[in-house]
Write a structure and sequence with these properties.
The chain is mostly helical. 37% of the residues lie in helices and 5% in strands. A two-stranded parallel ribbon has the order 1-2. The longest helix is centred in the C-terminal third of the chain and has 13 residues. It starts with 16 loop residues before the first helix and ends in a 7-residue tail after the last helix.
């Protein structure tokens, strides 16, 4: 069974990867040997240096980009990244809550963090998260 185990407070949309990682608080929970999965090679995921300092690995799935096949190391990376489907399903489950699916109205700003937290808890109880 897959569940969400960490939900951060909300951040504004213009925050960058590095600042998000620092302000998010997840770094306090990572230990040497942990693995962080990311899927944004096109924008250059910029936290590699931060993670290396904590001896945490970063896995970004490879893309062929015109090549015919992946290297053996890239195949291993791709196999690890397949677990990301569970994260995608979890995120889709959260987005089903119309109140928090898009831009959150200012009228609920005082309770926005709690609304997202409740949505995440409810997604954890869905049967179809892992098939």
């Amino acid at each position: 069974m897959a569940v969400g185990v960490y939900v951060s407070d909300l951040f504004e949309g213009g925050i960058g990867d590095k600042e998000l990682f620092v302000r998010w608080g997840i770094l306090d929970h990572l230990v040497p040997g942990d693995l962080v999965l990311a899927d944004r090679p096109d924008r250059g995921f910029t936290v590699k240096e931060i993670l290396m300092g904590k001896q945490v690995d970063l896995n970004i799935p490879p893309f062929l980009m015109g090549r015919e096949k992946l290297t053996p190391q890239e195949l291993l990376t791709r196999n690890i990244a397949k677990a990301r489907i569970h994260v995608d399903r979890y995120n889709e489950g959260i987005k089903r809550f119309r109140l928090i699916a898009n831009t959150i109205p200012l009228s609920i700003a005082p309770v926005a963090n709690q609304a997202v937290l409740v949505a995440c808890f409810m997604v954890n109880f869905r049967d179809e998260l892992v098939k």
